[in-house]
Specification:
By secondary structure, the protein is α+β, with helices and mostly antiparallel strands. The protein has 3 domains: 164 residues, DNA methylase specificity domains (Adenine-n6-DNA-methyltransferase TaqI, Chain A, domain 2); 36 residues, no CATH class; 68 residues, no CATH class. It has 9 helices and 17 strands. The strands form 6 sheets. A 5-stranded mixed β-sheet has the order 2-10-6-8-4. A 3-stranded mixed β-sheet has the order 5-3-9.
Length: 306
């Protein structure tokens, strides 16, 4: 951080005081307007146009608790130090959105500051260190609104804030675009796999006299569906064999860690709540007999030899 930048309390750039979100019982959730929860804040740094739970709001609650584009959301509590005070930015939605009671909303005055700049500041090493100075660690790590408002932050000129935020936002926009492209390609690959190796569409097309594939590929396709319905695979394409999942990978259940085993600096731990949804495909594969080619194959970018 440049030494020429002045510093002062974070609350100096607020458009209104910090506000904790609404607490609504689970019994009323599922209808109403979208609500940002701790789950969204920990899963998304930039929140915009995503699926969320819903809660009902009265007219008065809607006035006080509806989010505006540029609002910053801070996690009040976390089981670990690194999660307390985690900052996300709300970038808008096509419908009203509120936020739950485990979050703190900071609404920045656009005449004084750019909320995107402070979003990037609190996600930087220096900003994270500043947050950790106000974290209270008891059974869980947490921050208080009063401490967050008085936290000392930099006050660069507004034009500098906007320039910095614009550059970093452009990078984030490009990253998000690439993620969407990858998701589209993965969906196409999944649909192709489903069509070829689960629904046997090319086999059915050939049996019906339709030429859907190039000749060099069509030669690998079976002439009919005999033995392909159900688990009796019967006749297979050249070079293929039937196997089981154990022929391809080693399966090992995870260790049952206790909450007291968690520490800040050690080996990263993959938990079910944060697992890639694609890992659930193994639940289905275990139930199937596999058709394996006699050549190296790739699964989730990891090479396995059958």
């Amino acid at each position: 951080m440049p030494r020429a930048w002045p510093v002062g309390p974070f609350e100096s750039v607020f458009a209104e005081p910090l506000r904790n979100g609404l607490t609504k019982p689970r019994s009323v959730r599922g209808t109403g307007i979208k609500v940002v929860t701790m789950g969204e804040v920990f899963a998304h740094d930039r929140i915009a146009h995503i699926e969320m739970d819903r809660v009902p709001l009265s007219e008065g609650e809607a006035v006080r608790y509806t989010l505006q584009t540029g609002d910053l959301l801070f996690a009040r509590q976390s089981l670990v130090l690194s999660g307390a005070g985690k900052c996300s930015i709300f970038l808008g939605d096509d419908e009203p959105v509120t936020f739950e009671g485990h979050l703190i909303r900071a609404r920045i005055d656009p005449r004084r500051a750019d909320s995107r700049f402070y979003y990037y500041f609190f996600n930087s090493m220096g900003g994270r260190q500043a947050i950790e100075r106000i974290v209270e660690q008891v059974a869980a790590a947490g921050i208080r609104s009063s401490d967050l408002g008085k936290l000392v932050v930099p006050f660069p000129p507004l034009a500098d804030q906007q320039a910095i935020a614009a550059i970093l936002s452009a990078f984030d926009d490009k990253i998000e675009l690439n993620r969407r492209k990858i998701a589209t390609l993965e969906a196409l690959a999944g649909a192709l796999f489903q069509s070829w190796f689960v629904d046997y569409a090319p086999v059915r097309a050939r049996a019906a006299g339709c030429a859907l594939l190039p000749a060099e590929v069509a030669g690998l396709i079976l002439d009919g569906l005999d033995g392909l319905d159900g688990l009796d695979l019967g006749k297979l394409p050249p070079g293929w064999r039937v196997g089981v999942l154990g022929d391809l990978v080693g399966l090992l259940p995870g260790y049952a860690f206790r909450s007291g085993d968690w520490v800040e600096a050690a080996c990263p731990l993959s938990r079910l709540g944060r697992s890639n949804p694609k890992s659930l495909i193994w639940t289905r594969l275990v139930m199937w007999r596999l058709t394996l080619p006699d050549r190296p194959i790739y699964i989730n970018s990891e090479r396995a030899t059958c």
